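Thread: "does anyone have the structure for this chain?"

Original post by V.I.:
We have the sequence but no experimental structure in hand. Need at least a predicted one for the grant figures.
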Amino acid sequence: MTVVVGYLPTPQGEAALEQAIVEAQRAKVKLVVVNSSKGDALVDDRLIDAREFHLLEERLTSAGLDFWIERSAQGHDAADEVLRVAQAQRAQLIVIGLRKRTTVGKFIMGSTAQRILMQAGCSVLSVKADGTW
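Reply from O.Q.:
Generated one for you, tokens below.
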């Protein structure tokens, strides 16, 4: 069993990662970090670079976790990637970060978090970064 976290280098992503670390340590299970770019972006600052990847590896190693980092480049929807990895890993929990969006924004742009919440085959824990509301 595993804990899967959708991670972006944002305050919400950091909050999700911190909580996922706690949950994986508590359950003594593997942590899988999913970092995905926007589906059609040629360059996307949400996809971590080599330096950020190395820092993330060090952080997870120092937390004493068994982990895997899954980076998905352009062409993959973030919600689809998190759900795919969670299913493949038989995740017991998915952790995601939330940010405030207007009703119109959710309608026009869709909601990655909403899709994960509604389509996941396991429990989903949503967290927010301090001061983001």
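V.I.: this helps a lot. Helices lie at 11-27, 50-62, 78-88, 103-109, 112-119.
O.Q.: and The mean pLDDT is 85.
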